Amino acid sequence: MERTEAELIAAVLAGDRASFEPLVAKYSPRVFATARRYARREVEIQDIAQEVWLKAFDKLKSFRGEAPFEHWLMRMTVRTCYDFLRAHQRNRISSFSEISEPEEDWLERFVAEPGSVSEDADAAKMLIGRVMDKLSPDARLVIQLLEIEDRSVKEIAEITGWSVPLVKVRAFRARGEMRKILARMTKEKYL
Amino acid sequence: MNLAELQKKLTAAARLQPPDDRVPYAFEKRIMALLAERAEASRQMFWARGLWRAAVSCVVLAVICGAVTLFVPEVADGGNDLSQDLENTLLASADPGEAPIP
After folding, report:
1. B88 in a domain, yes or no?
2. Interface check B6 vs A, CB under 8 A
3. pTM of the full predicted structure?
4. Which end of chain A is more exposed for a tag (fewer CB within 10 A), N or C?
């Protein structure tokens, strides 16, 4: 009979390390999906996922079972991703000169007629990836959670450990930062 | 250029991207192996740390004893040292020369 999550966690806490494996197998897809939103290279993504699971094992005692294990784990994943962004902040500095031809076409079409371009185009997805890479860690985290994942300010405050007013301030700044990056990108291309 | 519109379009593009949740083959095995490795390493670390502490304590004790031997002046007690006194006391009853006269 398959053991429940609570039973598995209790077994791990009692010293049965092997009971941790089903948890890793079950939740790794979610951990990887989250990590891929903040890192691009596969090696970095695997490093983040590995760190998340090692942290989860070490801090399992702090899981009180009030919220689902998945929420607790996702909070840890997002925080690990944020630490990763902060640690790799210096690698973000680059220009938009390396924009590919399809991305350039998409931008040109947008400039000519904003309503004519589709947001479902691969070029648009690549462009947003570039823009996200250039955002500061705080801004990237807020834009990702608030604008892309559509989470509420309260949820973001819970995930990040920031206060609600701080999330609002950072969201305001993040939008401004994103607009500045977009302005620089279009300026580099069209001026 | 309408930057707000561009921002909206690109954010919508990001939203449309399905999350890629592929997990490398046998990832959970790798995590379990890492945990086992860490447990073994922490056991070794426990012993190594304990033994180093013991070694340091022994060295400190040896240095103190050496310092005491070198720097504490000998007590002048008529040439008898502690070992001689102990021997005399222990063998007093067996020494025929100093046996009490009945």
Report:
1. no
2. yes
3. 0.74
4. N
